[in-house]
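Kindly review these tokens for lecture notes.

. . .
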Amino acid sequence: MPHMINELIEITNKKEFYQNCTFHLLKMEGMIGQFNVAEFDFVIEELDVETVGNVEHWRITSHQTKKIKDIFTEQYLPYIKLKIFNDHPLLWPYKSKELECNLSGFPKGLSEFMGDLALEYEETSGNWLPLSSDFFSMQMSYFENGRISIGIVEQLEPGIRSICEKHGIRFEVENKIEQDYSYSNLKVLIFGNSDVSPYNFNLGQPYIIAEEFFATKK
């Protein structure tokens, strides 16, 4: 039932859970098809001396699953506090406009240019969107013809434009593409911990991107 995912989220965000429990993935099964269903079986075990051995089994089911990252890990600590977001940098590639851009003119210092871009991606997307996803084979393409075409989410456009101006590169937006409407309901479930890192900054927290999440206690 949908409300049980909220119950599981509430459990994982309790102070007692963080201090006294372990949280492990036992099994994952996925079915590629019309609904792209994935099932994740977790075990929660209490380690408090008075309740040691108390075990709960939970299943998280995701529908229309688009991406699973770093879910297969031996130890979730300190990232065991679940939270669901409807708006997050991880969702920009699915929900935001994509800009088709042309960059022309070779930078005098390619390393400095790429360094500025890397900092921009980290600052704007909280390190969730890697520079390499848009700027790949950069050096080879530039050396060949002095220009490159890229696709970026609209949130990155102001910063990239400013960096291009700084390095004497012409930046042009050729086309703006609306994302598929079917992605509008996507959410991201992050295994995080705001005491260690805010949810909008990437330090390797596991996550699942899907349209809907459900949980059942087994």
